[in-house]
Write a structure and sequence with these properties.
By secondary structure, the chain is α+β, with helices and mostly antiparallel strands. The protein folds into 2 domains: 8-76, no CATH class; 82-116, no CATH class. 35% of the residues lie in helices and 28% in strands. The chain has helices at residues 8-17, 26-45, 82-92; strands at residues 53-62, 68-76, 98-101, 104-107, 109-111, 114-116. The strands form 3 sheets. Strands 1-2 form a two-stranded antiparallel sheet. Strands 3-4 form a two-stranded antiparallel sheet. The longest helix has 20 residues, at 26-45. It comes from Brassica oleracea var. oleracea. Residues 1-74 form the Helitron helicase-like domain. This is Helitron helicase-like domain-containing protein.
């Protein structure tokens, strides 16, 4: 999410109170950005954009020209099965059934239809 100096809330405030350019009032830009950023997790929780998530992380940074932006990371709960694990291991490794764990090569063995490491 990146702040936009052309957001309606910023333009309305500047027309009403000063007439300055949005770049002359970074405090207004940051305040509106923070309000919209605070609303975004509420929209995520109401499943407006995505299905339910289990955790979220965001980081706010400022661009060179001064506009704030946020990097947002969402963790979604995915049902895990042996098939999903085996498929993802085969996609990420050259040799199926082998993967790295704690900087060592580990292999998967099936025992009682569950994955044993």
């Amino acid at each position: 999410m990146t702040a936009n100096p052309n957001w309606r809330e910023i333009k309305d405030h500047l027309e009403k109170y000063s007439g300055d350019s949005p770049n002359d009032r970074p405090d207004i830009e940051c305040r509106v950005f923070k309000m919209k950023l605070d609303q975004l997790p509420k929209d995520f929780k109401e499943e407006t954009f995505f299905k339910r998530y289990t955790a979220a992380l965001h980081r706010i940074e400022f661009q060179k020209r001064g506009l704030p932006h946020a990097h947002i990371l969402l963790w979604k709960k995915i049902p895990i099965s042996d098939h999903n694990i085996q498929t993802s291991l085969e996609k990420t490794n050259r040799s199926p059934g082998c993967f790295f764990r704690n900087n060592r090569i580990a292999t998967t063995k099936r025992k009682n239809s569950s994955l044993v490491l």
